[in-house]
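Q: Got one fold?
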Amino acid sequence: MTAVDLVLRKFGGRPHRQVAGRLLGEDAYGTWIATPRGSVVSYHYGDRPTGITRADAVRLIPAQGWWMAMCLAEPDARDMYCDVTTPAEWTGPAELTVVDLDIDLVRYRADGRVEVEDEDEFEEHRLSLGYPDAIVEGALRGAAELRAALTAADEPFGEHYRKWLALV
C-alpha cells in the first residue's frame, strides 16, 4: 500500500498536524487511508512535537465535503471522530491537505450519542482570523451534514466503513 501523509493546516496556512498513513483505496464515498495503531502524528501545537496513534483507524476523506472522518477500532470508546475542514486537496503525489476549521464531531460506541465540540473555538477563530463567509457557510453546512449522518448512522457511517477498517 502506498504511504500517504494527511496534512492539516489552520486557516492562513499555519501547520497544525500531520498523520502518516497508507492509502487503502477509493470508493463512492471518497479516499480511505489506514492509520494503524502506532502511526506517527506530528503536532505543530502544544508541547508534544510527535506522537503515535493509540488505536487502529481508517480515515475517510470525502470526494466532496467540508469534513474528514476517522473511524476507530475497539476498544476506543469512540467509533467516529470527525474534523470539519475545507475540502481536501492533493498537494503532492502522496499528500492530502485540508484546513482544520475547529469544529469536531464525536460519536461514542456505547450509546451512539453524537457530540459537537469546539464550536466556541470556531467562533473565536472566525472573528480573530477573519474567516470569509464562504468558509463559515461551508463549515457550518459540513457540521450539520455530519451530525445528521452520524446520528442516523447513514452510510458510510453505518456499516460501510467497517469493511475498510477491517483492512487495517
